[in-house]
Hints:
This protein has helices at 12-23, 59-69, 112-116, 149-153, 203-212, 249-263, 283-293, 385-407; strands spanning 4-8, 27-31, 73-76, 79-87, 90-97, 101-102, 123-124, 133-134, 159-160, 166-172, 174-177, 181-183, 200-202, 226-233, 268-273, 295-298, 303-306, 312-317, 323-327, 330-335, 337-339, 367-370, 373-375. It has 8 helices and 23 strands. The protein folds into 2 domains: 4-98 and 165-180 and 340-407, FAD/NAD(P)-binding domain, CATH 3.50.50.60; 184-336, FAD/NAD(P)-binding domain (3-Layer(bba) Sandwich). The termini are close together. The mean pLDDT is 92. 42% of the residues are buried. Helix 1 (12-23) packs across helix 8, helix 5 (203-212) packs parallel to helix 6 (249-263) and helix 6 (249-263) packs across helix 7. The chain binds flavin-adenine dinucleotide. Residues 8-14, 31-34, 39-41, 44, 55-57, 80, 178-181, 183, 203-204, 248, 252, 335, 337, 340-341, 377-379, 383-386, 388 line the site of flavin-adenine dinucleotide.
Amino acid sequence: MKKETLIIGGGISGLSLAWELSSLGISSTIVEKAPFMGGHVSNFACKATQTCQKCGACQLEDYLSKAFKADNVNILVSSSVDSVAQTGSHFMAKVSQRKSIVISDKCDDCGLCLKVCPVEGALIRPAFDSRLYISNEKCLNSNGVHCEACAQICPQDAVELQKKSQEVELEVGAIALCTGFAPYDPTQKLKFGYRRVPGVITTLELDSILRTGNFQSAAFGEAPKSIAFIQCVGSRDPRSGTNYCSQVCCGVSIRLACLIKNRYPEINVTIFYMDIQTFEREFDSTLDRAKNDIDFIRAMPSEIHSDENGFPAVIYHGGDETRQMIPFDLVVLAVGIVPRDPDLPGSFPGLWKNRDGFIGSDDNDVNAGHPGIFVAGAAQGPKSISACISHSIMAASQIKRYLDRAERGE
Ligand SMILES: Cc1cc2nc3c(=O)[nH]c(=O)nc-3n(C[C@H](O)[C@H](O)[C@H](O)COP(=O)(O)OP(=O)(O)OC[C@H]3O[C@@H](n4cnc5c(N)ncnc54)[C@H](O)[C@@H]3O)c2cc1C
């Protein structure tokens, strides 16, 4: 019996699961499709003001260093699982890895490659790193299409495109799906003006801006004087097919708002909300403090449009049902958590999809519906970073129990 686990997805859930398994003496291989580890959390800013705000973002560094140091954790980035076959209690997984890269020592950051690349997101500059990475998932060349635009235009010869993928075969006793979530796509809500009205961004984009530096260095120029957050964009919305709470957005917006007030006390911050969901312990005191500095308006805006000065104006109906309009310099859409890659469960035999379209059952279970296949973190449903880590700890103990029983032939 192979006491080894294949972990698909190298976000906080995959990393914490690998570390927990390592502590239990079980080896694992993490297959991550992005060219770097960390998933969504890798772009989050630390939200500490004078004191730690317990946003959890720093936990990633901790688990990254533990996983990279552990000698029984093998990490494959820019990789994907092409097929899985089961023989008895073993799984044979075929993994392909592509190593197209931008050589950072040669790259002089001229930006020409970004201009000629025909696919948005194929060249990535993550918030945690000033270097450029090639996403093999999106790059045309990595997907068999003849395109060498970036390599041809690079005056420094810094782009190394690898045409052929490397194949790796893994024999494992268990598989853990830690494939995470996708942020709700706000272009689906035309009325909120994302990508249509200048000055409308998402909480993920704001997080990256605050992580990389400040507003002045961001694409839209100088620091805004007023910012509005719109809650529940793609959450608790049956018309969008997301009839559930994303659980993290209220905490995210309030922490981001407090961080902004701490760094730029002169900026006016307003939060539009339906009701504030505080899933976290001890969050009520954070909320009480936030109410001193931030305006809370209980209304779901009906529209955001560009006012006569080109700024985003939020239209909503106040308590007395009168139509109100407030212009802001920046509007931040608190996008929810939706299932990523809905086709994934189908590629494994007999996997469950829960009520909200995530992998697994409706409760917090780590079983994915097929013996030997487990799920951990946001792939199972909306969760905070700490909740993902707890879920991974639970998954590690269940995987150990499963592998022990399989070894005994039970
Ligand atoms: C706007 C926003 C802000 C947030 N801010 C906070 C916060 O401040 N604090 C907090 O506690 N939580 C926050 N969260 C929640 C947090 O993002 C999640 O808890 C966390 O990212 C979940 O981690 P994960 O590893 O399960 O998934 P992800 O972070 O989504 O990582 C999944 C990984 O799997 C990889 N992957 C996916 N499919 C495949 C595949 N088929 N093959 C190989 N690799 C694959 C992905 O590339 C990715 O690296 C926020 C969420 C949102 C939407």
